[in-house]
Design goal:
Layout lengths: L1 H16 L3 E9 L10 E4 L4 E4 L5 E6 L4 E6 L2 E7 L8 E5 L16 H15 L4 E13 L2 E17 L2 E15 L14 H9 L5 H4 L3 H4 E7 L6 E8 L9 E7 L4 E8 L2 H11 L5 E13 L2 E17 L2 E17 L27 H4 L7 H13 L1
Parallel strand pairs: 1-7
Antiparallel strand pairs: 1-4, 2-3, 2-5, 5-6, 8-9, 8-17, 9-10, 11-12, 12-13, 13-14, 14-15, 15-16, 16-17
Length: 387
C-alpha cells in the first residue's frame, strides 16, 4: 500500500509542486544602468507583494505562475509574465520619468479641497475587512552606529469598516539582533503597531496639510504625471518663511477612481538647517520621512508597503545623543477574509522590541518580500557578534 501511495505522489509531483518557483530579480534603470530600489512588485494572480532593496534586488517564491506588475512613482509601470523569468538572475528594466517634465495643472477647485475629497473617497474605498500578511523590519542607530535590529512576519487582521477600523496582530515568527539600550524609549519613536494600519488607512499623516491653517503655511499645486494620463500629483511644500517642523508632501492619485496610490513626506535639507539654527542644543528632529504605497487591483484597494524614518536628538545622562529608526513594512499577501484565531494569540505591544525571538524558518530570505542587501547582512552579522 505504501508503495502505491509513493508511486501516486511521484506521478502527481510535477503537477502539484512545479507551480511554486523561486525567482531572483534585479531591477535596472534603462538609462543610467543603475539599480532601482523600492520598486513594488505585485503578483496579480496571487496578490503576493515584494519590494526591491537598495541593490535593486528582489528574491521570492511565487506560489503559481502570474503576471508581475512593477511600479514605482518615478518610473513607467510595466507587467512581466513570471514564465519569462527563468534565469538565475533576471534583469528587468524600467524607464524613468526624469526626462519628462511635470507641468502645473490648473484646477477649478483649490488643490487642498481636491486632496480632502481624495482622502475621504480613499478611506471609503479601502478594502476591509481583510488580512494583510506583513514583513516588518526595524533598524536602530545611536550616534550613527547600528545598535539593534528586529523583524518578523505578522498578520494584521483588519476588522470593522472604514468608519470604525480595528486591528488584531498575530506574530508568526520574529527575531531580534543586537542590544537595545533602555534610553531608546518606544514611546518616543512615534509609532505603535496596534494603530499603525488605522493611521495609514485613515491617511492621518496628511492631517497637518488638510487643516485650514495649512493654507497660510504651505503652497499647494497639482502637477501632471507624464508616465500616465490617468494620474496626477499634488505637491504641498511649506513656504520658506513658515516656521516649524514642516514636511514636503507628495500625493500620487488616480483621477478617474479618485483614490490615492502613493503618499509621501520628507523634511527638506533647507528646513532641517533652519530647525537646527533655531533649536541650538535642545532636543530636535534631524531626519523625518515616510512613504505609503497602495495597490489598486481588480476592486481590491489596500496597503502594499510603507517606510518610515525618524531621527532625533535626545538628552541622555547630560549628553545629547542621536537616535535614528528605520521601519519597513511589506505586505507579502493580501486576503479579503481574515482567518479564525484565538484571542490569547493577539499581540498587544507597541513594537517587537521586547518580544523574544521565535524562528522556525529563514523567513527573511524568501518570505519577507524584502531581502537584506550585502551591507545590511554585514550589519546584522556585526550586531550578532556584539550580542
Amino acid at each position: 500500500m505504501k508503495r502505491k501511495i509513493l508511486l501516486f505522489l511521484l506521478f502527481l509531483g510535477p503537477f502539484v509542486f512545479s507551480q511554486s518557483r523561486e525567482i531572483k530579480i534585479i531591477v535596472i534603470d534603462i538609462d543610467t544602468q543603475t539599480p532601482v530600489d523600492e520598486v513594488t512588485i505585485t503578483a496579480l494572480k496571487t496578490r503576493q507583494g515584494f519590494l526591491t532593496n537598495a541593490e535593486g534586488i528582489a528574491n521570492f517564491v511565487l506560489d503559481k505562475p502570474s503576471d508581475l506588475e512593477f511600479s514605482h512613482s518615478s518610473y513607467k509601470e510595466i507587467i512581466v509574465k513570471s514564465a519569462t523569468l527563468n534565469q538565475k538572475l533576471n534583469i528587468v528594466y524600467l524607464e524613468s520619468k526624469t526626462q519628462q517634465l511635470e507641468e502645473v495643472v490648473l484646477t477649478k477647485e483649490h488643490p487642498q479641497e481636491i486632496l480632502k475629497e481624495l482622502v475621504e473617497n480613499s478611506i471609503r474605498k479601502i478594502t476591509v475587512p481583510a488580512n494583510l500578511k506583513v514583513y516588518l523590519r526595524e533598524f536602530y542607530k545611536k550616534n550613527d552606529e547600528y545598535v539593534f535590529f528586529n523583524d518578523g512576519l505578522l498578520n494584521f487582521q483588519i476588522l470593522g469598516d472604514y468608519k470604525n477600523l480595528k486591528t488584531d496582530i498575530l506574530v508568526e515568527q520574529n527575531r531580534t539582533i543586537g542590544l537595545l539600550e533602555g534610553d531608546i524609549d518606544p514611546d518616543v519613536l512615534g509609532y505603535n503597531l496596534n494603530n499603525i494600519i488605522e493611521n495609514y488607512y485613515q491617511f492621518r499623516y496628511l492631517g497637518e496639510v488638510l487643516d485650514q491653517k495649512a493654507l497660510k503655511l504651505y503652497d499647494f499645486q497639482v502637477k501632471s504625471y507624464p508616465l500616465n494620463q490617468d494620474l496626477l500629483i499634488i505637491k504641498v511644500v511649506p513656504y520658506l518663511e513658515s516656521k516649524g517642523v514642516l514636511s514636503d508632501f507628495q500625493v500620487l492619485y488616480n483621477t478617474k477612481k479618485k483614490i490615492i496610490l502613493e503618499v509621501s513626506a520628507v523634511i527638506s535639507q533647507v528646513r532641517l538647517k533652519l530647525i537646527e539654527e533655531l533649536s541650538h542644543n535642545r532636543n530636535k528632529v534631524f531626519k523625518l520621512s515616510f512613504k505609503n504605497t497602495f495597490n489598486d487591483d481588480k476592486g481590491f484597494y489596500y496597503l502594499a508597503n510603507s517606510k518610515e524614518i525618524i531621527g532625533f536628538s535626545k538628552k541622555i545622562k547630560n549628553e545629547y545623543n542621536k537616535i535614528e529608526v528605520l521601519n519597513n513594512m511589506v505586505v507579502t499577501n493580501f486576503d479579503k477574509k481574515p482567518f479564525k484565531y484565538n484571542d490569547n494569540n493577539i499581540f498587544k505591544d507597541k513594537t517587537l522590541i521586547n518580544k523574544k525571538s521565535t524562528v522556525f524558518t529563514n523567513y527573511w530570505d524568501f518570505e519577507s518580500g524584502l531581502v537584506p542587501t550585502t551591507e545590511e547582512k554585514t550589519i546584522l552579522d556585526l550586531l550578532d557578534v556584539k550580542n
